[in-house]
Amino acid sequence: MELMLLTTVLLWSLNLSITKYVLTHGLGPLPYATVRYGLAAAIFVALTLVAERTLHVARRHLPVVALATAALALNQLSFVLALDRTTASTIGLLLGAIPIFAALLGLALGTERPTRRFWLAAAVSFGGVGCVAVGSGSDVSGGGLGILLGLATAATWAVYSVTVAPLMRTYTPYRISALVIPVAWLLLLVVGLPQTREQSWSLGWEIWALLVFATVGPLVLTNVLWFRSIHRIGAAKATLAANLQPFVAALLAVVLLSEPLSVLQIAGGVLIGLGILVARRRTPAPQST
């Protein structure tokens, strides 16, 4: 079980470095998102039809499915555009704020009650976000916009996680993915069509191999491993391990991509992590961006 969790966290973390590498070696962010989610959609639909023989969802749940789909599409747009404008290590650290965004959304919806513990966690985490932003703002061109898009990535994933959670009590994660991901792909296809038309597809085999890996590993396989882990050991223990993902992602980006990581960014990552520990009772959904 520990191996399954470790594999999941490693694949999530590796996804940022892989995506950044692909985007800097010839594939535009919107064509990348379109191809990746198109492939994932086909895989999830096939798996679900083989395993469950149906994609049926009750009509009363369709508005929730639609909201989850919109949140996921916005999440993927902000994710690839953020990585196109700033470093993978920076985005990895910013994704550590997902539990805080999810808790804030819970407060807005009335499903969470504000406590001093939560506000302390939020203050510490967003102080860490500020440190990451200041520490990385001068490293790359367009860093400010990249930071905003990175925060949008964390916020939209929190919206998706909170939205899809009630559906998981009725349907398997595979059926939800088989419904949400194909429609999200259609939205990505429409938005990215102009850039996709201009994209040169004469890419090296290694770029195609990395794109397939980023789909099958961090997007499809982690979905299976994550929910099996939750089923066997519970969400609390699984999420505690998942909270390591932002820091592993930043470390891998530094090692694999030779990205700079300032002392202020490291301090920000530590503060975000402390905020997560303070609010550790709240459990987000998997971070398979």
Describe the overall structure.
The protein is mostly helical and 289 residues long. The protein has one domain (2-278). It is built from 12 helices and no strands. The longest helix has 29 residues, at 205-233. The radius of gyration is 18 Å and the shape is globular. The mean pLDDT is 83.
Short description, anyone?
The protein is an all-alpha fold and 289 residues long. The chain has helices spanning 2-23, 29-52, 62-85, 88-94, 98-109, 116-136, 143-164, 173-198, 205-233, 235-242, 245-257, 263-278.
Question: What are its keywords?
Answer:
289 residues; mainly alpha; single chain
Radius of gyration: 18 Å
**What is the SS-derived class?**
mainly alpha
Question: In percent, how much strand structure appears in the residues?
Answer: under 5%
Shape: globular
Distance between the termini: 22 Å
Uncertain parts: none
> Helical element count?
12
What is the string of helix and strand elements? Answer: HHHHHHHHHHHH
User: In the residues, how many domains can be counted?
Assistant: 1
Q: Count the beta strands.
A: 0
Largest sheet: none
User: Helix proportion of residues, in percent?
Assistant: over 70%
Average pLDDT value? Answer: 83
